[in-house]
Amino acid sequence: MAYYRKCMELAVEQLDKFQPEKDHPEQFLETVSASLQALSPQKQAFVLELLSGCLEYQKLLTIVVDAFYVRAGRLCLWADYSLFEVTCYLATFQLEELGFPLFCDIISAQPVDKMRKFLGFFFNPVNLCSWIKDEWSLIYETNYVKENWIDPLMRWQPKVQELISQLEGVSACQVPLLKSKAKATEPKEFNLTAPRPRAIPMPEPVPSLAKMKAVPRSTYQVPKEQQQLEMIKRDNRRRAEELLLKANVEELRCAMPRARGEKPAQECKKQLQPQIPPRIRKTPKLTFYRPDNVPVKLNTAAILREGALYQRQVERELQRVGQLVDGAGDVSEFLEWQKQMLAKDREEQLAADECRRLRGKLSQQEAVLARHSHVQENRQKANQKKEETAALMRQCAQRRLQEERSVRERVEQVVEAQKNVKAAQAKLVQDRRQIVQEVMEESRELLQRTAEAAREEQRRRWELTSQLRALETQPTRKGKLVDLTQIPGYGLEGEMSVVELRERLALLRESQRRKEEEKRDEIIQGRRARSQELRNTLEQISLCRAAMGRAAALRWEEKKAQAAAPGDLSKDERVRELRRRVEERAAERRRQAALLRVVAPRAARPQAAGPAEAQHWQELARSRERRLQARQRGAAPPGPAPRLEAA
């Protein structure tokens, strides 16, 4: 018996050290085998067999031992949890192999009372055939549980009952010996301190309400520092706007032609330099380089949209080729006629642009002539305005004298009225004092009523508090025994126990998890199919872009070749007529300026206006002719070329 007691103690000790969250069963068994090298091979094999079996069937053993602690083993220690697990394993899985005599020796070597309670609970036919069988069937198949475990246990049940009766006899024989040796307990009275009577708390005095101070005006006003900062910001902004406005005006003045009497560009720049505010810094001119081939990342919608566009273009082209094969007409003659008409329209457009430029030049000359006549009219109006202003000044002086006399009369009337105001103010102060006294008496009465109501409320609260404390001193029953396997019996449809509810919830979670996994697999397959479709569409788009880029480059070269031959605008009758009229207006303006000696309002050096003006207009005409020729040749900025290639 000492042999089996030692083996059981080693098995229970090692099983207590096992932690399911941290330790792995195989590694744990290897560690235990290394620590049991000092034992004999038989003991070592028996202990390892017990440990490996308990770890393998941990769920089955836990169900039985937990139920034992809840129902029959409420007074047993939780330190014996591993002992009951090992006993349950021996009775369930090793009873056939060990034999009943050896099993009896092993049980006799353990504490008698604990083994009697556990075996009586475990080998109870009601427990074996009801809830133990149902719980084990949730983990393993029902037929397997019944054939391999429940039926053998039921066969051994009569012999185990004899063993339990022997253990009861042993415990009955041992109890008197223990009682004879133990000393009787002598009860003694508790030396408790008598509690003091609870004192009734004194009511707190009702605080008197102090007069509230009025809210200061500064609460609703902006601080002076913030007002000053706002004023400084507005002044700085206004100055900056004025400086920028002056700079813009000077730039526009420099950009105007010399015919209006403006200064040269260099003088304007010198004049503009001191006008720039000190805080404004001119940023250096930045140069941006546009890369030729920039990878553009397209989203799914853009890829599908562009793929559908190219697909429609391919379908239209195939339809056109099919129509040509069927005998439809060719559009080459129409395209040739269309090119001729486009060239003719381009020439007419250039002629219209030249006519528009000449009309603008003609209107400018006419505007200069109108300005000269307007200056003369302004001089006459200014003389007339000066005479009217002098008459108005005389009238204002007379009106001011009359107003001074009326003001003196009003001052005398106000002095007389102030004498009567003092008596009225004294009467008003007396009335206000009387009103204040009446208001103070009313407020005093209201305060007294409020204090009495507060005292009554405090007394009522004290009574309720004493009643609640008396109720709290009454004893209450704590704790409640709950059987999770019992049905409440309220008579409701679908009523079940907590254990059955947990089982159904577990099954429902498992079914939901399977559905989620199936749905996830379907989503992944759909994503893979869509990604493959997008890759195919991208390949088709790249091919279409390359073809369209080559076609666009060919069209661009053809367009440049067509626009290489400039048109002759001197044949147009409207252009010749407008040029003749412009020359006539320019000659008339020079003649009128020489006769009237009219000085432009912004001219800096009128003596050099004639030759410089003619030179300016010649340069302006030459620049416009060069621009027109470049437009006729079809010169364009280099921006669209890489754009077409990228397309």
Briefly say what this structure is.
The protein contains 18 helices and no strands. The protein is an all-alpha fold.
Question: What can you tell me about this protein's structure?
Answer:
There is one protein chain. The chain is built from 18 helices and no strands. It folds into four domains: 2-175, Orthogonal Bundle (N-utilizing Substance Protein B Homolog, Chain A); 232-275, no CATH class; 289-322 and 498-565, no CATH class; 332-455 and 566-598, no CATH class. The longest helix is centred in the middle third of the chain and has 141 residues, at 332-472. The chain has helices spanning 2-17, 25-35, 41-56, 58-71, 81-93, 95-98, 100-108, 112-122, 125-139, 142-181, 224-255, 265-272, 300-326, 332-472, 498-562, 573-596, 609-632, 640-646. Helix content is 74%, strand content 0%. The radius of gyration is 57 Å and the shape is flat. The protein is mainly alpha-helical.
Largest sheet: none
Number of strands: 0
Poorly predicted regions are 175-179, 255-286, 598-610, 635-647
Shape: flat
Task: List the keywords.
647 residues, mainly alpha, N-utilizing Substance Protein B Homolog, Chain A, 4 domains, 18 helices, disordered C terminus
What is the fold's blueprint, element by element?
Elements: H1 2-17, H2 25-35, H3 41-56, H4 58-71, H5 81-93, H6 95-98, H7 100-108, H8 112-122, H9 125-139, H10 142-181, H11 224-255, H12 265-272, H13 300-326, H14 332-472, H15 498-562, H16 573-596, H17 609-632, H18 640-646
Helix pairs in contact: 1-3, 2-3, 3-5, 4-5, 4-9, 8-10, 9-10, 11-12, 13-15, 14-16, 15-18
